[in-house]
Amino acid sequence: MKDNANAYQQLHTHFDKIGELENIAEIAYWDEATMMPEGSGETRGKSLATLSGVIHELKTEQKIGDWLLESEGDNSLDLWQKANVFEIRRIFDECSAIPVTLEEELEQRSFKSEQAWRNYRADNDWGSMLPLLSSLVDLVREKAQVLGELKSARPYDALLDQYEPGMTAESIDKEFSKLKNFLPDFIEDVIEDQGRDKPEDLAGPFEIDKQRELGVQVMKSMGFNFDKGRLDVSHHPFCGGTPDDTRITTRYNEDSFEESLMGVIHETGHALYEQGLPVSWRNQPVGLARSMAMHESQSLLMEMQACRSKEFLKFLTPSIQETFAGDNRRTSAWSMENIQKLYLKVQRGFIRVDADEATYPMHIILRFEIERDLINGDIEVKDIPELWNEKMLTYLGLNTDDNYRDGCLQDVHWPSGLFGYFPSYTIGAMTAAQLFRTATQSQSNILSAIGEGDFSPLVSWLNEHIHSRGSSASFDQLLIDASGETLNSTHFIEHLKSRYLADL
User: Is 207 one of the annotated active-site residues of the chain?
Assistant: First the structure.
């Protein structure tokens, strides 16, 4: 870039450099979760902390502030450039408020905590996890306090704003309250109804190689670009990497192929969003996904809306039979009707990632309420297990007393320092229902195409209305432009009624 380049061009070039470094960090995180030798954790943690510090310093250079002031008054910029300036301003102000030493310490402590969590969860060892998590939460609170002062917001709202710009705990609680009022009786009614015609369980074991084969087949049907992505295994399924090098993972259970398959479908939904982001805005803040909730809407739209539809299950059943049933494919357990019942089965369970779409929101509401009170200082880390058990008993009728593995240690988020993330899952589920309803109403061929294993009409619609727009508009505006209204939980509730209690 020439020295006489205008301020916006300087900003663009600078953040292109930052984006390249963030790409490297993303691949390093993926490697840590999938390939890194166990004994390399300490060194990798230091390396990532250093890289995080370098990126943080680049985001807070004083010249960015000067370029921003000039760019914000530049009327020659187009809408995308103006949106990019807006996003850069938000990043610059937030990062400038946080000392680089705090950022590096958070990175290193989060990495150490996550590494330890893998073993402590396996051993059901809350006592050993407690001091590590407490130490991490202290740093997260410090960061939340700094951001809260910057944004004139409560600490938790300040963290939430990083994932869901513009949303607050109060606004989320308002939507979640509607679900808390609806779901308990609904879940009870569905379980009672399904109890009259219970599905037959499918007998394993299900070979992992065959599970992977089926997962890859479905990914190809959905439109995943394997020339710029791959599928691997990790402790906790995730989508990482970059738009041009998209890495997704799942985990396999020989007793249940559904777990890995739905994990693959979920993460592929994330991956399609990443691969569909605007190519011309790579490495720029405006070219990133809009928010975590919008990201989760894309994964849940695929996993829950599209791939649990009767149309898709009808298409998928022959592949399931061919892959796993062997000589038993003509038995009642392997029939299309039974497989559909299994995929739409509602049951109370301990594990969030294995939950059906009816019970899943209660898992999220529980976590949202705990982490909100934790970051705001109303409770302490030591209080988590008791509160978790109380809420699990109230919301789902399950007891997690002394069962930390299936209780408060089951998720990677808190040990990784990710607070303010959990609400995105259920906001995403509500968004997914709203978008899928609009898409199928506006294009009548979407469901029929899915019934033939062709996701291209759906993905094209999502690309036009969500993926290709990056962060050029707010969450609310994207949703208004796509569906005609802001977030409305009614669509999610009506979807559940239609799918599970339509005959009652």
Answer: no
